[in-house]
Amino acid sequence: MEKIEGTSSTENPRPWQSYHTVYTNAKAGMDGVDKEKVQRVVYEMSKGSKYFDNEERKEAFIRQKIEHMRVRCAKLTAADLAHYQKVADKRVSELEVRRDLSRIWLHVDMDAFYAAVETLSDPSLKGKPMAVGGMSMISTANYEARKFGVRAAMPGFIACKLCPELIFVPTDFKKYNYYSDLTRKVFRNYDPNFMAASLDEAYLDITEVCRERGITSAEIAEELRSRVYEETGLTCSAGVAANRLLAKVCSDVNKPNGQFVLPNERMAVITFVSSLPIRKIGGIGKVTEHMLRDVLGINTCEELLQKGSFLCALFSQSTAEFFLSVGLGLGGTETPQVRFRKSISNERTFSATEDKALLYQKLAEIAEMLSSDMHKEGLHGRTLTLKLKTASFEVRTRAVTLQKYICSSEDILKHASLLLEAELPVSLRLIGLRVSQFNEDKVGAPSDPRQRTLTNFIMSGNASRKNAGDQSSLGSDISDYNFMDDQETSFSLGIHEAIPDEFRDPFENNCVPNVDDKNHTFSDNVGEVEKTHQPSSSETAGKGNKLEIVRHTPKSHQNEVSQLMETDSSFLLQHEGNNHDRVEEAANIPNNEAKSSSNPTDQFFWVDNYKCSLCGTELPPTFVEERQEHSDFHLAARLQEEESGTNTRFHTPTQRPDHKDRTASASHKKRKKLKYSRKEGTHIPIDTFFVKSNQNF
Ligand code: TTP
Ligand code: MG
């Protein structure tokens, strides 16, 4: 949110005009939207709520940063600037030398993916405004709904207000996975090493296929898109450019069902980026955008080059270098090296239960999924680890190493059941299974982590894409995901590997600052090749289990990041603690050892850097702003809770919008019901956080 300088909502008769949240950010298909109307609705529906208060705190923080930067800027003398101009010129020449125009990258992104899949299953939805998700959160909206300003990550009740005819369809992650697999089969024909960035998008190096077949990149893009359509009945859009950063921007140019090719020529690239708004670049979020715009008047990529001296004067070398490279239209061109996985796992979160039959049923489902994943990769392993999280959030792991290598669901279930049996009776909220110690001989094609799971994506370093990925927030069971330490995979998609964390938006990625944690880093941003060994409580207990967390934060930036975070104590949660520890806990599965979380209220982090530990919403790190909004919801809930004395925490998202949600008239009733529901197993409806301060519930 930003406000017009010097005005307040009481002085300003249209305060929503300066109210910008992720919901008012345009996605593809929203060009003709009445932005002011959207702003007004969002403003009116959130004003007076804890959410709104928090937005104001965030705004205050941004303003403080901007002010600080302005002061530093004003102190720069002409001599300083002359010096920094030389520095900038040198950097630009060095970067220019590294420009690589030899590769052709194609970025493909499915159109309104979840919504399109749902429309395939139910053609009666065709042409009608619809959204996938529920009253709490929308995963995506079709292009008809976008005309009303309805978009991904928006609470459904706001969407209803914008578009009363909106039809809601619950998420069905299995379906999206199925269609995603079909698309990937097509991608493989053009680049066997393609890089899946999320369920609905991928990067393909089409240099070879263009050369071998003697056809243009535009022809390849056309052909690929029609083959995706033939295979799936779904449309997609493509962008072609000399590097991944540009290819991604290009795929949005003619969305939906279109493509855009940027020639591999320096002048074409320079011209293309010159007028490109900096916000179009993955990794430049709201805070960065405002900072650059309000302090230096930078709006376009070209202006990054023009203001190079200021950038070099005010920011660290790597940050300035990143900005300059964006100005030059540079991006990743190499295919990162692949390392092979060491384990494979699957786990599932659900409402706490001690019903034995139910627990065995969950176990059987997980065994089935795990076995199917293992079959796909031709994996056979002989160490089976059972991970449990009890109702009181104690994490236990039990492992067995077998004589023979297994991969069938029957074998997995048989041994897992024995492990589980030894723990009963127990009330559980999570069960996970992991198989490791693979039989190398039986590993068929080397498992390519680039194309496997969402975890691969999460670990792939493409952590700064603003609008990509997968989320399945509503469901009686939260969808499955892999333990974080599944693989030794670590590579970067090269889009943002250069983005310094110092300059990551401080509100991104659930990075709620903690003044108590002086060494806090963005541990959430996994993906850079750096690996750090974090001593865990289990290790200090002498068990020697090695935990490696792949982190994005380059060491050189950590102090700067800490500094940035420490300044923002205004909206921190006392209970937040250190993300490292929690990611570590989620990631680590020490063998034969129970590990407990000492404070059951201390649970807010992204499990596997992917799923909200509080409510189970799946939101990959690429959904930077959506994630920020999400953590804000929890913050607001906490504040609300503290004020009203209610307990909203730790409800898992089991609430699916039922059929009634399909009609706008029923939705209001439903909303009310959700708002006051506190029974275990009900997810926290996001509208709860929009409860006005003066309302008691
Ligand atoms: P996107 O590719 O960003 O969006 P989209 O495919 O729905 O629409 P388009 O590409 O045509 O603009 O995201 C892909 C899927 O990821 C989307 O269908 C649903 C999911 N998603 C979420 O779950 N939450 C989000 O906040 C966003 C942006 C997407
Ligand atoms: Mg898409």
TrEMBL record:
Keyword hit for Repressor: no
GO molecular function: damaged DNA binding; DNA-directed DNA polymerase activity; zinc ion binding
Domain of life of the native organism: Eukaryota
EC supergroup of this enzyme: transferase
Subcellular location(s) per record: Nucleus
GO BP annotations, alphabetical order: DNA repair; DNA replication; error-prone translesion synthesis
Compositional bias annotation for Polar residues: 645-655
Cofactor: Mg(2+)
Pfam families reported for this sequence: IMS, IMS_C, zf_UBZ
Listed CDD domains: PolY_Pol_IV_kappa
Domain spans labelled UmuC: 105-285
PROSITE patterns tied to this protein: UMUC, ZF_UBZ3
UniProt entry keywords in alphabetical sequence: DNA damage, DNA repair, DNA replication, DNA-binding, DNA-directed DNA polymerase, Magnesium, Metal-binding, Mutator protein, Nucleotidyltransferase, Nucleus, Transferase, Zinc, Zinc-finger
Region (Disordered): 640-677
InterPro entries: DNA/RNA_pol_sf, DNA_pol_Y-fam_lit_finger_sf, DNA_pol_Y-fam_little_finger, DNA_polymerase-Y, DNApol_IV, Rev_trsase/Diguanyl_cyclase, UBZ3, UmuC
Stretches assigned to the UBZ3-type domain: 605-642
Basic residues composition bias: residue spans: 667-676
One GO CC annotation: nucleus
EC numbers, comma separated: 2.7.7.7
Reaction catalyzed: DNA(n) + a 2'-deoxyribonucleoside 5'-triphosphate = DNA(n+1) + diphosphate
NCBIfam families the record matches: PRK02406.1
Family: Belongs to the DNA polymerase type-Y family.
PANTHER family membership: DNA POLYMERASE KAPPA (PTHR11076:SF33), DNA REPAIR POLYMERASE UMUC / TRANSFERASE FAMILY MEMBER (PTHR11076)
Protein name listed in UniProt: DNA polymerase kappa
Organism the protein comes from: Dipteronia dyeriana
